[in-house]
């Protein structure tokens, strides 16, 4: 999900996940910009299936950065990929 995870009056995602659904918030703020209010939570529903929730910032750039750093590598790991992070290619810039 995206939005509703910062510190404003209408940012209720963390409270709803924790109080209404009983999810565990593993982190609710990270020390980076953009992407400070990124949140990760886990929990179960009625059928005891474990759920992973990434709540990303509402700002599009912040959401993209948080998705690249947290959500996509986690999905790759769950999918059985050996390399969860994107491959880095080093280049040299010449004039």
From TrEMBL:
Keywords: Magnesium, Metal-binding, Molybdenum, Molybdenum cofactor biosynthesis, Transferase. PROSITE patterns: MOCF_BIOSYNTHESIS_2. Catalyzes two steps in the biosynthesis of the molybdenum cofactor. In the first step, molybdopterin is adenylated. Subsequently, molybdate is inserted into adenylated molybdopterin and AMP is released. GO terms for molecular function: ATP binding; metal ion binding; molybdopterin adenylyltransferase activity; molybdopterin molybdotransferase activity. Pathway: Cofactor biosynthesis; molybdopterin biosynthesis. The keyword Cell membrane does not apply. It comes from Panagrolaimus superbus. It catalyses: molybdopterin + ATP + H(+) = adenylyl-molybdopterin + diphosphate; adenylyl-molybdopterin + molybdate = Mo-molybdopterin + AMP + H(+). This is molybdopterin molybdotransferase.
């Amino acid at each position: 999900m995206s939005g509703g995870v910062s510190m404003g009056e209408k940012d209720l995602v963390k409270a709803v996940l924790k109080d209404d659904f009983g999810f565990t918030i593993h982190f609710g703020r990270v020390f980076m910009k953009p992407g400070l209010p990124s949140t990760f939570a886990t929990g179960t529903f009625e059928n005891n299936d474990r759920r992973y929730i990434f709540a990303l910032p509402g700002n599009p750039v912040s959401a993209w950065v948080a998705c690249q750093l947290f959500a996509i590598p986690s999905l790759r790991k769950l999918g059985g990929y050996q390399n969860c992070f994107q491959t880095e290619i080093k280049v040299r810039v010449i004039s």
